[in-house]
Amino acid sequence: MKPEPKLILQGPGATDDAVQKIAALAGAGSLHPLGPFAWRCDDVRAEPAVRKEIAAAALAARLDAAFVPAGLRINDFRLVVMDMDSTLITIECIDEIADMHGLKSQVAAITESAMRGELEFGESLQQRVALLKGLDASALDQVFEERLELTLGAHAMLHAMKQAGLRTVLVSGGFTYFTERLQRDLELDVTRANLLEVVDGKLTGCVIGDIVDADAKKATVVAQAAELGAPPSAAIVIGDGANDLQMMSVAGLSVAFRAKPVVQEKAAVALNFSGLDGVLNLFR
């Protein structure tokens, strides 16, 4: 007989009362604290009606609720693949670059539409990059130094993944200028992103080479897993936008982080209130 899943409840605004009520809704056999603002409910009911009721109650309590297999372990995986903008970091780099050009609202609207899946990603990227034509390339350094921040819990999550022996992969529809610096600072194993063309110290409004779109992200997961002699299901994939859906579809565990509705609907787990270190509680 297949064991019942476990339910992980977590969030910085969690209260014992809210957790107890949701555990009761799930018919939990036992409830275990995992640390500050995180709990594991064992032997829970997981039929669709129960999941729907728990999702609504958790949202109202500002809690993340995730049903995962009872025996899920971090050592079941070989690599973790992350999106960059609004996932590993708190900003959308292209929007902040555009701000240096006085075009943030115009570029951000295109970004938002693409992340919701309303625009084809490659086309949207070309539209946005074209608007940056003529901007001094020093704006990239200014964004990195002054505006780029790691998402809460990123360091702890990455440290645990490395300690467990997982390959760390950053694949982004953003730009190599940022991924390469993050690779250096965070000691990431692999990064892949788009290369902005710069001539005479100015952005030309073009991307060099093939665009890292949804297909390229999926191909990266498949290729990196194959290098390790593993199937794509050996990957944990974390993302927030529609261009992350294809790589999530081949992953063994997909995590929608502060994600658009279309992504939350399809991912195995959605984290809306926890930091990136909330991923670690899924294995406890």
The SSE order reads: EHEEHEEHHHHHHEHEEHEHEHEH
- The tally of domains stands at 2
Q: Note poorly predicted spans.
A: none
Radius of gyration (Å): 20 Å
C-alpha geometry: elongated
CATH superfamily of the largest domain: HAD superfamily/HAD-like
Topology of helices and strands:
Blueprint: E1 6-10, H1 16-25, E2 30-35, E3 38-42, H2 48-60, E4 64-68, E5 79-82, H3 84-88, H4 93-99, H5 104-115, H6 121-130, H7 138-146, H8 154-163, E6 167-175, H9 176-186, E7 190-199, E8 202-208, H10 214-227, E9 235-239, H11 245-249, E10 253-257, H12 261-266, E11 269-271, H13 278-281
Parallel strand pairs: 5-6, 5-9, 6-7, 9-10, 10-11
Antiparallel strand pairs: 1-3, 1-4, 2-3, 7-8
How would you portray this structure in words?
This protein is an alpha/beta fold. It has 2 domains: 1-71, ACT domain (Alpha-Beta Plaits, 2-Layer Sandwich), CATH 3.30.70; 74-284, Rossmann fold (3-Layer(aba) Sandwich). Helix content is 41%, strand content 23%. It contains 13 helices and 11 strands. Strands 8-7-6-5-9-10-11 form a 7-stranded mixed sheet. A 4-stranded antiparallel sheet has the order 2-3-1-4, covered by helices on one side. Helix 1 (16-25) packs antiparallel against helix 2 (48-60) and helix 5 packs antiparallel against helix 6. The longest helix has 14 residues, at 214-227. The model has no long low-confidence stretch (mean pLDDT 95).
